[in-house]
Amino acid sequence: MSPTTFAWLVLALPLAGSIFIGVNYKWLSHRTAGWIASSAVGLAFIATVLATIGVQNRPEDSRQLTSVLWNYAVTGDVDVQVGILVDPLSLLMMLVVTGVGSLIHIYATAYMASDKGYNRFFAYLNFFIFSMLMLVMAGDFVFLIIGWALVGAASYLLISFWYRRTSATRAGIKAFVINVLGDVGLVLGTYFVFQGTGTLDLLQTFSEVDKVFAVNEGSLVAGCLLLLVGAFAKSAQVPLHTWLPDAMEGPTPVSALIHAATMVTAGVYLIGRLHPLFERAPIAADIGAVIGCATLFIAATIALTQTDLKRVIAYSTMSQIGYMIMAVCAGAYAAGFFHLITHAFFKAMLFL
User: Fold this and answer.
1) pTM for the whole thing?
2) Cβ 100 vs Cβ 133: under 8 Å
3) What are phi and psi of 54, to 5 degrees?
4) CA 332 → CA 69, 108, 269, 289, 303, distances in Å?
């Protein structure tokens, strides 16, 4: 099997698990639902490892693989395809999402054992993993935006999981609203980029950006700043950071998975994925680095005043993401993503 075939399998398994548990939640026993969800993500991790091996065995200049399932919309100059991009960056994120995700799923089978909404919880958890994988594997801007929005919806469902608590529903709504602000920024930023390059395909955009945009051209800088709004909302950077401490109202496995290992690193991934755009608009990259630097200091000092342990760890997460944002905006991609991986493990362990 080719790496792209394994990648499609990675995407399909959590979606199938979520749908199956969601449809049959009334008849499934707690133990069965938990292990179906955990197995789906565990098998996705194995498929990711096999895809990674397949890509690493290829020559270095041919490690960007694309696969298109079908043409979603072809009209005028717009050609939107249901496709994925499999390269070392997407595989890195897939390994983190499925690897840490599978461990947290297994932990949650025992942690949530006495909860009445057990089956619903695992349907949501699998849906979140699918949404995050869709975000990191998207081959064009349209499916990147769809994955981005689905991650926000899944986080709302999980943060508000204990919906009988007013504080939980308020925290979920707050997270959802701020994430939607980020979605708007992402869509508008994409429009500015598309207006110049005439394509929504990521690889084609990267090949065109140097030809159609001058360095620090106004429309490109505006587009990159709007893309940063999307990244900052998802990654809880100043001033769009207030949702993250409140999101601790969700169950602890949710805090570990979404607010330490995966969702909050989506902004770091976005900047790294779109690095050709930011390198062509260094003003936008500099602004991103400054805000990341400000966030890491502000969040760390706020953490010193907290008395609730989960909120302390939440502000610590904001601070660490600030380091990552600063690194990738400054062009230190290896350092930023190395810290992303280590943070996913040590912060998830702190929550659990």
Assistant:
1) 0.94
2) no
3) -60, -40
4) 34, 35, 13, 11, 26
